[in-house]
Design goal:
The protein is an alpha/beta fold. Helices cover 39% and strands 23% of the residues. It has ten helices and 15 strands. The strands form four sheets. It has a seven-stranded parallel sheet, sandwiched between helices. A three-stranded antiparallel sheet has the order 1-3-2. A three-stranded antiparallel sheet has the order 10-11-13. Helix 1 crosses helix 3 and helix 2 packs across helix 3. The protein is elongated and about 60 Å long. The N and C termini lie far apart (60 Å).
Length: 257
């Protein structure tokens, strides 16, 4: 006689699956079904949910831990830490005054910031993100929006490359508002070389530079440097960097908000 299976909520089961896949690197559907006392079909649905959120990769017959060298797709990043990003957006909006000129680069955090900033009157916006351009164009602040040309990449709905970088040099902004892939003692980093180059150019053409990084990006690593800490003026986060990183930021003259 078989005992009754203990009911576990989908969210709790999915958290357990994510933990197990992260620990082992790769796990089969059959093992997960046995481990969590449910059917293979249920496990496959769980894996789809987790894969769509960028927490793992579905492979034939199971799942693999998400690659550590990238951030995942844009839609998955938009679903990651949304409350933190909205808090960062609120903090950023308090720094910006009507009629200022802003660079915003492509990112889930800068897109959420754009929703808050689009209410501020008469801004001039220069961006390489078609999503950010559309957000400001539809906003109540009546921003004047300049969309940079260059090589178009549909995955992130952005322009990159020499064309975009050359255009950036023809502007001067009050602030560059830049999304960070990671912030550590070496500076602000990105997972994409092309996006790091856009951020570098925006920082160089701005009076002040704001880095946006939720708590999950502090003391993390990414392959490509966008800015040295000394190039930043303000770091806006929902969390407080640890003591060593705070010390490095303060030594570089970076204000932490």
């Amino acid at each position: 006689m078989t005992g009754k299976r203990k009911h576990v909520s989908p969210s709790l089961r999915q958290a357990g699956i994510h933990e197990l896949v992260t620990k082992r690197g790769e796990v089969s559907v059959e093992l997960l079904a046995a481990k969590f006392g449910t059917s293979s079909e249920t496990i496959r649905r769980d894996l789809t949910v987790l894969a769509n959120a960028g927490q793992l990769r579905k492979v034939h017959g199971g799942a693999r831990a998400a690659a550590a060298h990238g951030e995942g797709g844009f839609d998955a990043r938009m679903r990651r830490n949304p409350l933190a990003k909205h808090l960062i957006a609120e903090k950023t909006a308090k720094l910006i005054k009507p009629r200022q000129t802003l660079f915003l680069d492509t990112g889930s955090t800068t897109l959420i910031c754009a929703e808050a900033l689009a209410k501020i009157k008469n801004l001039t916006i220069i961006t390489n993100s078609t999503r950010i351009a559309a957000t400001f164009a539809a906003g109540t602040g009546k921003a004047e929006v300049y969309l940079l040309g260059g090589l178009y990449r549909g995955d992130n709905a952005q322009t990159v490359g020499a064309g975009a970088i050359n255009e950036i040099g023809s502007y001067q902004a009050d602030f560059a508002i830049l999304t960070a892939g990671a912030v550590n003692h070496g500076g602000m980093m990105d997972f994409s070389r092309q996006e790091a180059m856009v951020a570098q150019a925006m920082a160089a053409a701005s009076a002040r530079v704001i880095a946006l990084a939720d708590h999950s990006k502090l003391n993390k690593r990414a392959a490509f440097k966008a800015c040295d800490l000394e190039d930043l003026n303000i770091l806006i986060s929902d969390g407080t960097p640890d003591g060593a990183l705070t010390k490095s930021l303060h030594a570089a003259g970076v204000e932490i908000l």
